[in-house]
Amino acid sequence: MSVTDVDRRDEILGWARDHDASAAFLQLGDPSLSHELTRLADKGAETIMLIGISLGPLAPGHSWLRRIAAHWWRERPGRRPEIQVATRLVTTPDALADELAETRPLTGTEPGLTSPAWEQVPDHVRQVLICRGPRCTAKGSEETARAVVLGAMEAGLGDDDLLITHTGCLFPCNQAPVISVQPDDVWYGNVEAAAARVIVRDHLADGRPVETYRLPR
């Protein structure tokens, strides 16, 4: 379901193999949910069961699984398979089998991908770019991202304050994990979780860049 789940791809693929299933991702990971649904439908699947997996606190709401799948279902030309969706998210491998027994079918009446609330660019003060490229991911940027998001929540920073964005490579790879704060044009390197919490507290909440982790420009 979440960006952080992509970092645990091998673990999730192992769960899928244990249940004769496949895996797909709502964001950043490949294959996307829409791509995997198309692959299964093109192979002739008549019924597809979706079970959302969330291994951390940063996943979107369960409703997004139904929303994305329903969009694909409505847009699918020709024959469409029946899609059953588990009613709860799975957080441990032991819970996976339990979810097989409780599902609800898609009806095609689920909300679409647009909403009046998502029409305008958000009124954020700063955008925080968190590198999720290969080197930063290998150096722990999953925990960096988690610390930024949870730290922002603890500091009371909302959508009008920050737009937190996961990115591909930001290039000063030797300084991984890297984050960038715009429009301040402040870049930070070696941002492990503890450093991220300091940056949230001092820079993002109080407006004081943290020189300890700041990269030269």
Please tag this protein with its features.
217 residues, alpha/beta, 3-stranded mixed sheet, 7 strands, 4-stranded mixed sheet, elongated
Structure description:
With 217 residues, the chain is of the alpha/beta class. It has helices spanning 3-6, 9-18, 33-42, 63-75, 93-99, 134-138, 141-154, 193-204, and strands at 47-50, 82-86, 103-105, 126-131, 162-167, 179-182, 186-188. Strands 5-4-6-7 form a four-stranded mixed sheet, with helices on one face. The protein has a three-stranded mixed sheet with strand order 1-2-3, covered by helices on one side. Strand 1, helix 4 (63-75) and strand 2 form a beta-alpha-beta unit. Helix 7 runs parallel beside helix 8. The protein is elongated and about 60 Å long. The two termini are 36 Å apart.
